[in-house]
Give the backbone structure.
Amino acid sequence: MKKQPNQPPQPPQPPEQSARAGFVRRLAAMIYDALVATAVGMCAAMVLIVILVVSLKNGWLDLQGYSEPNELLGKSVLYKTVIQVWVGLWVAGFFLWFWKRGGQTLGMRAWRLRIYSITEEPVGWGRLVLRLLASLGGLGTLLVLFDVKNKQSLQDRVAQTEVLKLTKEQNNHKSW
């Protein structure tokens, strides 16, 4: 049997008869995702802080004149910034990974929403990062309130995506 040349994967097609999601459903999914993202951020912070405390206590990192690691971590702009960037990367990674893997975060899955491309191109990492930045921490979704006809958020417009409401059958990952 002849081996077929590798062809790029085709982007998932939006289901027929699906409408774009409105503001209330998106907001509910955002609240759900905010809770999960908070947990992800707390776990990421805990891991890094434990590593820093152990490193400072064992002398692998300099205490810079402080007697306890918590004093240094609480007052050092550098350490606070490192922790915040670390947590931010994990939270951003949460959204990007779920969007890339299935077009849905956990909150979107619970509220039967999914991201689809409105172009022929699949939604790649670049467009997903652009979508995340354009969401402005969720404020970009407010545009849906004013765009009654198209129901597109700022992040949808910038990244050329749409968020569709799914039926229970369409939301089943086994059917994809």
